[in-house]
Amino acid sequence: MEKEDNFGDWYIDIVEKANLSDKRYPIKGMNVWTPYGWKAMSNIDGLIRKELDATGHDEVCFPLMIPETEFKKEKEHIKGFDSEVYWVTHAGLNELDVRLVLRPTSETAMYPMFALWVRSHQDLPLKVYQIVNTFRYETKQTRAFMRVREIHFFESHTCHVSEEDAQRQIEEDVEILSKIAKKLCLPYFLSVRTDWDKFPGAYYTVGIDTVMPNGKTLQIGSIHHYRTNFSEPYGITYENENGEHKHVHQTTYGMSERLLGAIIGAHSDDSGLIMPPDVAPFQAVIIPIISKDNGPIVAEAALALAARLSAYGIRVKLDNRDARPGSKYYDWEIRGVPLRLELGGRDIENGVVTFARRDTGEKGAIELRNIEQGVELLLKIISVSLSEKAEKSQISKVEDMDSLDSIPEGKILRFGWCGCEECGHKFEDTYDLKILGTPYLPEEYSGRCIICGKATDKPTMAARTM
Amino acid sequence: MEKEDNFGDWYIDIVEKANLSDKRYPIKGMNVWTPYGWKAMSNIDGLIRKELDATGHDEVCFPLMIPETEFKKEKEHIKGFDSEVYWVTHAGLNELDVRLVLRPTSETAMYPMFALWVRSHQDLPLKVYQIVNTFRYETKQTRAFMRVREIHFFESHTCHVSEEDAQRQIEEDVEILSKIAKKLCLPYFLSVRTDWDKFPGAYYTVGIDTVMPNGKTLQIGSIHHYRTNFSEPYGITYENENGEHKHVHQTTYGMSERLLGAIIGAHSDDSGLIMPPDVAPFQAVIIPIISKDNGPIVAEAALALAARLSAYGIRVKLDNRDARPGSKYYDWEIRGVPLRLELGGRDIENGVVTFARRDTGEKGAIELRNIEQGVELLLKIISVSLSEKAEKSQISKVEDMDSLDSIPEGKILRFGWCGCEECGHKFEDTYDLKILGTPYLPEEYSGRCIICGKATDKPTMAARTM
Lengths: 466, 466
Hints:
466 residues, eleven-stranded mixed beta sheet, alpha+beta, globular, Rossmann fold, homodimer, five-stranded mixed beta sheet, 13 helices, Translation Initiation Factor IF3, BirA Bifunctional Protein, domain 2, 28% strand
């Protein structure tokens, strides 16, 4: 299956061959996380947790179910979710008095409690996050990690004294994102979504998009400023230093298992997955190369090597199955282990370990004496190299456009837009492309709206989406 | 509130004061995990994960929802759960064709997949586990961590070639339990449950019970042997070495957030929680003792002390709030931090840190030079001491009984039982006590059935349960 020619089929094939998830569960779009897929996802969760903890967010866990009465308090929000939530209507043999919704996201679960927790300006900022599964009744075709009905999800929620303080949180979120994305070797665009595409209830939404090999974008997360849109209906107020009661300003930041989907799409190739070292369940695999007279010596050396690397904190797998090295290479290539270490009689004599990089195929030798540092360095190099390659690929997919005469296929289009809703809808409807929004980070631009011709100093991007 | 006199109220009070969970969520029995409670639970999850990983179990994550058709395949099982599951009947604006159940436990989610995963004897044993939330529509009075409707839950599921191999798994589970319980400083009894009290669908169930200060038992987990009771309806078969197709033998092992409830009940006192060091979100708290002329020196030394302990892997909290030391002592006492470290001008001059143990109140000094090892050792001593105290308390609550003339209150009763259902029911119904079952580990015993007088070589235990 070839990645460049038929990304959709290639993706389905690779998820199955690498055994990251099993889609044969008897509910469509609710897949089983296999051990390998779950380890990769847990590593991603770990990277998220680290950055959130370091910036003073507290991890919590809120109930899954939300009473319909709470769920419906914010009018825009419920309009946005009405058609895609699961309803619990019965418990045991009884019908419930108040129906319960399975969280599609946790605003309406958390905010009644925030109203109890926040009393004074000294309780602010309140910064919490949780990593849980959320539920959306997806009616489009499902695809592992990218579009599913049970979604592994990280969400942070914050409350602030003012709009400005909430804005500073958004900036911190952007900083956190850049650190996490670096470990995932994922480039991305930040776009302030159009008014008709923002999160239901938000003041504004920053979409986080990455580019897939087929030239479509995949939204891997979003950051929202709510102003007081939720704190008003939920009554989340604080007493300021002058004894006045004010509504808090809120933000949220969310990312999902799509991060894993994005990694698969961005880094893998026709031979299988390529896992970024910080995500890989196994960062290195050791394959003993045994000839007829050196079995025990090589086996023992391989065991010692595994122990040394593991003690150093490297996630290492010793593959001592009774199988030919070639078939082992093949298995671990598909599963995307970033570094293969081969250890044979000759290597032991020479005091080296032979390595092969999964990403480039490059081979070489590392001195056994400094094997820990050698492997660590190679993993760093692989990480940087994956980032650079993905970055280049993303840039190559963006095309500036100054007329609507011919629209290139499989590209992210960048062009001027006056910002008005009429022009935006006209463009989206005519070309079946989605306007991703205007850049969140300032960009120099001077041009004309590609639809109405009015002068504008903001570019916009549009693309087909996964 | 006094623990010994009114355990029930004391417990509710302590959970609230220590801020482990917030029960004001608008659905009864679905509580919010606060940062402190969630950290403690995550530490427990970590202990479980470590032992499960070390014994070759793979972590997975199965979908939350189970189609009614799959849920009803094993007749005993569904009879046992029919009255206590939540039903999802609608998605978006549509009624579902097949109703979905929120997992009360995951047999019926996992076993259709095991039927696909297991092909040959080489795929066995299959050993997986997950840590997820489960759901039961509890109609009795709810109590944080002990009886809730959304339950944080660990469950391992295994498949084996034979009944004997499955039995060996049960023995491994008992071993795993002993390691985890040691870290939680929790004593427990293992009882083979009566036939009318075993898990719905099990061949036999081992209940894991611990004793609360009021003399009631709390079941903190269970281990089940299923034989082929589930593999038959779910069609989980393997081809053996002779090419014959056989049903697998299965086991499960589950424990829940009740472990945290048990810890609170077992170790805490009238001044608040006492967290076992391996569970404590903060193992030590540093309180700078500042006098009017040494502020900066003490603050700097406290910071350096925190950094040293943290680098050594100790979970340490530096409390440098602008408050009196006494009020800080009080706060951390309630929250159960096992070790308090005080650092003042005199301590710095003498090159020591003053400590106070939360469990005994004992005070002393540790040399600053070896502070890491000193704190580590004290935490170990506290852990052993908590275990011994809880063990003693458990033993003191067990009373041997050889007649029904007078039944002691607030005790776990140990007596002979012929094992027949008639005598069992008669005893339970007459005295409103639950028979916990017969000892899982062999015990010397010779006596008579306390009900019918028949000779028996097995004791049984009975108690009121939480």
